[in-house]
Automatic annotation (TrEMBL):
The gene is dapA. The lineage of its organism: Bacteria, Pseudomonadati, Pseudomonadota, Gammaproteobacteria, Vibrionales. It holds the Pfam family DHDPS. It comes from the Bacteria. Gene3D superfamilies: Aldolase class I. This is 4-hydroxy-tetrahydrodipicolinate synthase. Its EC number is 4.3.3.7.
Length: 292
């Protein structure tokens, strides 16, 4: 089972805009040393939308190589065309990825039946465990618990990343899908509460910046020490909130550069470096959280 603090790993770029694989290896080692429980490669925070397919595959494979079996690696494989999501997913067959994280189709706004058929087709095309990813704020479509329950009956659909921040869904999903269906928060600010309601962990943006704190926090939360976890969580709250002052991963890449975790905060267009007006806000968040 996937539990604890799992980082939605950013993808470092060099000064020419190419993927910085030396920097990627340093990030992987940093997270393993800090106690991160799993690494998600090429999700939203990893700039999946602007990497080429070849880069996408290479970043995941290089992450697997650098991790070398020390923690699970989950590959981002979502697309808004079902055939494309299937193609990307199948490219990871036999590579050692522990699971695939597949976002709901964005922009084309399928119905609940369309979502069901989309995920069913992906799952039937592979034996790799599949984790659903519901983030309505980005995709303009909401994967409802009743649809998740239908999908949970498919053997290799094992869990969901829920970024709705609706804590009432944890209990409802557990009732519909059973205790073994993995529920992971995709909202850092409410993730400890998510675990308190019965969730299993978080796929985190904040963990890019405060890996050790996030790892400790979720060890406490999962062992029932919610009050102790919340003490850390309140200290990290400025990061949870202000790493989204502009679209993710703009602020988190700027913050990672400030901490010396990556060589620069550059992104691929249409995303641009954190604006000067927002930089003091993110810097203050780093100070308030005690990581700078």
């Amino acid at each position: 089972m996937f539990t604890g603090s799992m980082v939605a790993l950013l993808t470092p770029l060099d000064a020419t805009g190419e993927v910085d694989y030396v920097g990627l290896q340093k990030l992987v080692d940093h997270h393993i040393d800090a106690g991160t429980d799993a690494i998600i490669a090429v999700g939203t925070t990893g700039e999946s939308a602007t990497l080429t397919v070849d880069e996408h595959i290479k970043v995941v494979l290089k992450t697997l190589e650098y991790v070398d079996g020390r923690v699970p690696v989950i590959a981002g494989t979502g697309a808004n065309a079902t055939h494309e999501a299937i193609t990307i997913t199948k490219l990871f067959s036999g590579t050692g990825v522990a699971a695939c994280l597949s976002v709901t189709p964005y922009y084309n706004k399928p119905t609940q039946e369309g979502l069901y058929q989309h995920y069913k087709a992906i799952a039937e095309a592979t034996d790799i465990p599949q984790i659903l990813y519901n983030v309505p704020g980005r995709t303009a479509v909401d994967l409802l618990p009743e649809t998740v329950a239908r999908l949970a009956k498919i053997e290799n659909i094992i869990g969901i990343k829920d970024a709705t921040a609706d804590l009432s869904r944890v209990k409802k999903t557990r009732e519909l899908c059973g205790e073994d269906f993995i529920q992971l928060s995709g909202d850092d600010a409410t993730a400890v509460d998510f675990v308190a309601e019965g969730g299993h962990g978080v796929i985190s943006v904040t963990a890019n910046i405060a890996a050790a704190d996030m790892a400790t926090m979720f060890k406490l939360a999962l062992s029932g020490q919610i009050d102790a976890a919340q003490e850390i969580n309140q200290r990290l709250m400025p990061l949870h909130n202000n790493l989204f002052v502009e679209a993710n991963p703009i602020p988190v890449k700027w913050a990672a550069h400030q901490l010396g975790l990556i060589e620069n905060g550059d992104l691929r267009l249409p995303l641009t470096v954190l604006s000067e007006s927002q930089q003091p806000i993110v810097k203050q968040a780093l100070l308030d959280a005690g990581v700078l």
